[in-house]
Amino acid sequence: DAGVIQSPRHEVTEMGQEVTLRCKPISGHDYLFWYRQTMMRGLELLIYFNNNVPIDDSGMPEDRFSAKMPNASFSTLKIQPSEPRDSAVYFCASSPRTGDYAEQFFGPGTRLTVL
Amino acid sequence: DQQVKQNSPSLSVQEGRISILNCDYTNSMFDYFLWYKKYPAEGPTFLISISSIKDKNEDGRFTVFLNKSAKHLSLHIVPSQPGDSAVYFCAARDRDDKIIFGKGTRLHILP
């Protein structure tokens, strides 16, 4: 398996533009997570899905952020409109389950810069 | 309010010596603890974990110790190797099955 795939790897955009980040989880994994990493706040969970259904989106910072998982092999995180403070590295991760072995497999991340 | 705290942003250790990374938590309901390792331009990768019913778990050069009364865990790496230079994240699972991460500690292994 190729692991968790994220695209794009880098995104530079201007304030006010819409940004869409994409993720393909590992096949067979039931859980998908979106994280944001910043120097100030470290690695924050934004939202996670179980079997394509959003379970907890309490980490989504504002209504400008939305995430979807239309099928088991694809998820998007959208920011509209984007702001400079959204600049961060966004990680997608998947997990077969969150039982005793709660290992999550992370993608390489998307580095977002909003000018 | 940070539930998982890594108070040392960075740590330097001589190659061959022991590296000790520390982590404190505030939520007594956490039932599972994990350590992740992250290299630049890559996502974090799972390293080792421990259940809250145990106080030690060992995997090769890596050992995690859990002190529930102090709400403290530590990761020991011995002997430290150059490839261990990375950022290490401490994480804990809450009863909603969410994984809460600390801010990370950057470990430098010196030649």
Explained architecture:
The complex is a heterodimer of chains A (about 120) and B (about 110). With about 120 residues, chain A is an all-beta fold. Helices cover about 0% and strands about 55% of the residues of chain A. Chain A has no helices and eleven strands. Chain A has strands at about 5, 10-15, 20-25, 30-40, 40-50, 55, 65-70, 75-80, 90-95, 105, 110-115. The mean pLDDT of chain A is about 90. Chain B is an all-beta fold. In chain B, strands 2, 4, 5, 9, 10 and 11 form a six-stranded mixed sheet that branches. A five-stranded antiparallel sheet of chain B has the order 1-3-8-7-6, with no helix packed on it. In chain B, strand 9 and strand 10 (about 100) form a beta hairpin. The interface between A and B is medium-sized, with 23 and 22 residues.
Given the structure, what is the number of helices of chain A?
A: 0
Q: Note the gap between the termini of chain B.
A: 37 Å
Which structural class matches the secondary elements of chain A?
mainly beta
Portion in helices of chain A: under 10%
- The best one-word shape of chain B is globular
Largest sheet of chain B: 6 strands, mixed
Query: What's the oligomerization state?
Result: heterodimer
> What gyration radius of chain B follows from the Cα positions, in whole Å?
13 Å
Low-confidence stretches of chain B: none
Number of strands of chain A: 11
How many β-strands of chain B, per DSSP? Answer: 11
